[in-house]
Amino acid sequence: MSIHRGLREQLGKEPEPSAAIIDSQSVKTAQMADTRGFDGHKKIKGRKRHIVVDTLGFPLVVKVHDANLIV
């Protein structure tokens, strides 16, 4: 059993989440970064991170890629 499943049950929730929330953030990287892209919408040269959490805020998925990649 994973830690999140146990915590969810202790909080009176089902072990598996029924909903999730996704958010993204573009962040600047140093010029020495291996790869980076340009997010034209936010005018940032760097990386973009997407994080998916359940309704309690426990992370389900984290993905980091060049800022110019469209997912």
What report would you give on this structure?
With about 70 residues, the chain is mostly beta strands. It is built from 1 helix and 4 strands, in the order αββββ. The chain has one helix at about 5-10, and strands at about 20-30, 35-40, 45-55, 60-65. Strands 1, 2, 3 and 4 form a 4-stranded antiparallel beta sheet that branches. The longest helix is centred in the first third of the chain and has 8 residues, at about 5-10. The protein is elongated. The mean pLDDT is about 80.
Describe this structure in a few short sentences.
With 71 residues, the protein is mainly β. The protein has one helix at residues 3-10, and strands at residues 20-28, 37-39, 44-54, 59-66.
Low-confidence stretches: none
- Major beta sheet summary: 4 strands, antiparallel
Number of distinct beta strands: 4
One letter per element, helices H and strands E, the order comes to HEEEE
Report the mean per-residue pLDDT as an integer: 79
What is the percentage of strand-forming residues?
35-45%
Q: Specify the number of helices.
A: 1
Rounded Rg: 16 Å
* Tertiary shape: elongated
The SS-based structural class is mainly beta
State the separation between the terminal residues, measured CA to CA: 31 Å
Into which percent range does the helicity of residues fall? Answer: 10-25%
